[in-house]
Amino acid sequence: MDIVEQIDKINRQLTVKGYKLTPQREITLKVLLENEKDHLSAEDVFMLVKQKFPDIGLATVYRTLELLSELHIVQKMNFGDGVARFDLRMEGHDHMHHHLVCKVCGALEEIEEDWLTDLEQKIAREYGFQVTDHRLDFRGVYQTCKNNNKPCKRVGKAVS
After folding, report:
1. Domains of the chain as residue ranges with CATH
2. Cα-flanking dihedrals φ and ψ of residue 139, to 5°?
């Protein structure tokens, strides 16, 4: 699905919830979609949006990101560096994808498979609890970082 189709889909989600796709929201979404593997902070999003929409304010970008988070279009997450980052929910996935986070180089890699389906079913059976969402982050060290004794900057945007 290309960016235009994704924005159309998100626009329908906003409309159903009583919101409009304003030009500010649209440009913020475009930046998120164009950089979806980078796990951008609000400030990162703002700087990229500002390049395309110079009149936009930081507060507008923050409000847009919060709205998208409330509507479960993006997920606000923290990878242990004290910075809130925003990650788009994957098309066709019931839950958020998982991450590998390297403690040496800060690289971040996404795992798109949902490995917890069986566990959710067990929780439902044994506890009568219906899981509606989950997120799993694995923190550790890539073998290349461990062997080189220096950061490898393996994959994804570093979380410094």
Report:
1. 1-89 (1.10.10.10), 94-160 (3.30.1490.190)
2. -110, 135
AA letter at 82: G
- State which amino acid sits at residue 125: R
Largest CA distance in the chain: 54
Rg (CA), the chain: 17
The SS3 assignment for 115 reads coil
Mean pLDDT of 5-31: 93
For the question of whether the overall pTM of this predicted structure is more than 0.85, the answer is no
- The 3 state secondary structure assigned to 39-95 is CEEHHHHHHHHHHHCCCCCHHHHHHHHHHHHHCCCEEEEECCCCCEEEEECCCCCCC
* Interatomic CA distance for residues 19 and 23, integer angstroms: 13
- Output the six-digit token pair for 44: 């990162």
Choice between 104 and 129, residue whose per-residue pLDDT is larger: 129
| Cα–Cα distance for residue pair 65/27, rounded to 1 Å | 12
Q: 112-126 pLDDT, tens per residue?
A: 777 788 888 899 999
